[in-house]
Amino acid sequence: MKVSAELRSTHNHDGAVVLDIRHGQMFRLNLVGSRILELLKESRDETEIADQISAEFGAERDLVASDVREFLAQLERHQLLRIEPKVKATQ
């Protein structure tokens, strides 16, 4: 997964404000959405993000995984995230 190069964000204790400079749209994220975006920028995958969010916020892992999947789908629909196919390593 790769966050769009046209995405700009600022994060604080309340969440984040995200600007899509290509389409001129602005989005507001709550604290959890902000943290997911930070983890995406660190090149974490969906499983790692769900594990981290579950641990940090003390939420049930299965519920977090579902919410993360939905959040990533929303980012992709708004063209803020590109989900790249996994490349198998050759030996």
Helix and strand string, N-terminal first?
EEEEHHHE
The strand line-up of the biggest sheet is: 2-3-4
Task: Give me the count of strands.
Answer: 5
Rg, Cα atoms, Å: 14 Å
Give the CA-based shape.
globular
**What do we call the CATH topology?**
Arc Repressor Mutant, subunit A
Taking pLDDT < 50 over at least 5 consecutive residues as the criterion, the unreliable ranges are: none
Please report the number of helical segments.
Answer: 3
Mean pLDDT: 92
Strand content is 15-25%
Describe this structure in words.
The two termini are 24 Å apart. The model has no long low-confidence stretch (mean pLDDT 92). A three-stranded antiparallel beta sheet has the order 2-3-4, covered by helices on one side. Strands 1-5 form a two-stranded antiparallel ribbon. With 91 residues, it is an alpha+beta fold. The chain contains three helices and five strands, in the order E-E-E-E-H-H-H-E. It has a single domain, classed as Arc Repressor Mutant, subunit A (Orthogonal Bundle), CATH 1.10.10. It has helices at residues 31-41, 46-57, 61-77; strands at 2-3, 7-12, 15-20, 25-29, 81-82. The chain is globular.
Question: What's this model, at a glance?
Answer:
The chain is an alpha+beta fold. It has helices at residues 31-41, 46-57, 61-77; strands at 2-3, 7-12, 15-20, 25-29, 81-82. It contains three helices and five strands.
